[in-house]
Amino acid sequence: MKTSVTPASISIFLDLDGVTHSEPCENIHQFFKKLPLISEVLKLYSVEVIISSSWRSVYTLDEIKDQFLPEIAHLIVGATPNLKRPDATWTPPTSGAERQSEIQKWLNENREWSQPWVAIDDRANWFEPNCRHLLVTDRTTGFTDDDAITLKRMIEERI
After folding, report:
1. Whole-prediction pTM value?
2. 124: closest CA among 135, 113, 115, 116?
3. What is the pLDDT of residues 98-121, one digit of tens each?
């Protein structure tokens, strides 16, 4: 069942490794180091956050939310499905755009397909070439000040 959203709402699909911290990240104290910068942008807009990271297969949504500041954690409304698991109701495309397919499935099940969205990920190859919804981060640094500027622009283009 699709839930209603306000017209200004934007769905933000958030990867974690290579976005909220560098990848690889050997120091546990560096995990989620970039979340404050991401949070600064997200709290400016009417957005919802959907976790699109492989972390969703290991940790519960509540465990992931615990890594976020409370002012942002409440924006997390779910996680994309893992299409590597058998699902008779969905046939993923063979294009290799696995992460984008997971996002499309989540949108199909939870929102109208026309729902504006942005994905923040460090792996462009998990999306269709030149995906206009994708903000690609450098996995060695994670989300940067330049990415914050780009994210603001992408959100404002969709409002």
Report:
1. 0.87
2. 135
3. 999 999 999 999 987 778 999 999
